[in-house]
Amino acid sequence: MPTDLAQFIATSPLADTHEHQNSEAAWQASPPDVLCDVFDHYSDSDLVSAGAPQSATAALFDASRDVADRFRAIEPWWQHIQHTGYGEAVRIAARLFYDLEELTPSGLAAANNRAATYRQPGQRDRIFREIARLDHVQIDHFSSFCQPDPVDPSFYRYDISWAGFSGGGFGIGSLAAATDTEITGPESLRAALGELVVRNAPHAVAAKSQHAYERTLAWQERDDAEVAPLIAAKLHGTPLSREQLNALGDWCLAVGAEACGAVGLPVKIHTGHWAGNGGMKTEYVRPGLLSPLLARYPGTRFVLMHAGWPYSEELIALAKHFANVVGDCCWAWSMAPLSVRDFIRHWLHAAPLNKLLTFGGDTGWPISSAAYAHQARAWLTRALQAEVDEGLMSEAQAISAAGRLMVANACEVFGL
Ligand SMILES: [Zn+2]
Questions:
Q1: pTM of the entire structure?
Q2: 187 Cα to the center of ligand 1, angstroms
């Protein structure tokens, strides 16, 4: 018999604050394949770190090859990752969409013919609304230009990608063309970036930057005199060093933070663990490296993503200290569900409840997103049920907190 709390979390709408969802048309055109549906996205990273050959994990997603053969090729390593957060999401997707309680070569092969049914018109939308039971979906489509979504602009919302600017590697010509600005130096570059925000803000939910994949999150104030020669070099096509790119990136991120603050758009920033294998620079990713930026732009709301995992306590400290810091558990449940269960509980007893966002699948396809949504609901239930069981909250208080964490906070933070 589920508790009232479990029932509430299982059935209430859940805001999805971070995805990279491909379009409805791309989903319908994707090859129907049970293995792509249940293993995408991220579990291949755990397979690789368990020791699976890259060739076998790459073949796993090649829908033109035999389903049973592809699964057999990774099966020894699947046994080792089935209990990780990514592995759990694979099992949830298999159960929810293919009625598979365990993964076997013959079971997967027999289930494969269902994959085509999910690619029929309208199914993507149904998966998000009825199976994932999402309130809305926020999408980083790796572009700085946002248009109203063709299916439903109030349900599918978009981020203005700021990663290229924060990293310093953006194309100055394309920015000039897109904003009808002649860029000659700091003043006109600032105007172009401001124009980019103003033009795209009506169709955007936030600006988003994952520059922690290419440079440190450490930020320092840069003045126009420092970046003027860097902009001139860029205009002449002269390559910049990493240090120069960081200086220009710091300056552009500051311009973006100010411009977004002026129009009420939050700035989302990737913090913590890197996707993939074999490259993570832990010295780049700690949320605390951002504190000079957070202090410099108190009028801008910063959403620090992925629970900062594994530096989650640092994120709680930032949210406790800075009124303009919001935390987001997007993607984090699937990376380390027990850590995020504890993170939620630690947050509740250290930082304000209204500044924590709970869910984002961080995937490109609807089935993965729905599986991750189910996973997040289950673990959020464990976090809040423990609060009730330990006498720290009444069940009514836990239900009220769940409503905030699942949807109300996101609507407040993003002005929806
Ligand atoms: Zn992402």
A1: 0.97
A2: 31
The DSSP annotation for 80-148 comes to HHTTSHHHHHHHHHHHHHH--SS--HHHHHHHGGGGGGGGSTTHHHHIIIIIS-EEEEEE--S-S----
Expressed in angstroms and rounded, the spacing between residue 389 Cα and the centre of ligand 1 is: 34
Q: Which residues contact 91 (CB under 8 A, 6 or more apart)?
A: 82, 102, 103
366 CA from centroid of ligand 1 (Å): 14
Cis status, amide bond into 310, omega within 30 of 0: yes
Q: In this structure, which amino acid lies at residue 104?
A: T
Distance, CA 107 to ligand 1 centroid (Å)?
A: 31
DSSP state of 402: H
Q: Looking only at Cα atoms, what is the longest distance across the chain?
A: 68
Q: Measure the CA–CA gap between 389 and 380, rounded to whole angstroms.
A: 14
Contact indicator for 50, 85 with CB cutoff of 8 Å: no
Tokens of 50: 């368990």
φ and ψ of 102, to 5 deg = -140, 155
Instruction: Give distance in angstroms: CA of 271 to centre of ligand 1.
Output: 11
DSSP classification of residue 214:
T
Two structure tokens written together for 39? 């293993």
Q: Structure tokens of 336?
A: 């380390």
- Residues 118, 121, 122, 127, Cα dihedral to 10°: 10
Q: What is the whole-number distance in angstroms between the Cα of residue 45 and the centre of ligand 1?
A: 15
Q: Which is nearest to 248 in space by CA: 302, 170, 146?
A: 170
Interior/surface letters 109-133, b for 16+ CB within 10 angstroms, e for the rest: bebbeebeebbeeebbbebbbebbb
pLDDT band at 1 (very low <50, low <70, confident <90, very high): confident
pLDDT digits (tens, 9 = 90+) for 9-51: 999 999 999 999 999 999 999 999 999 999 998 999 999 999 9
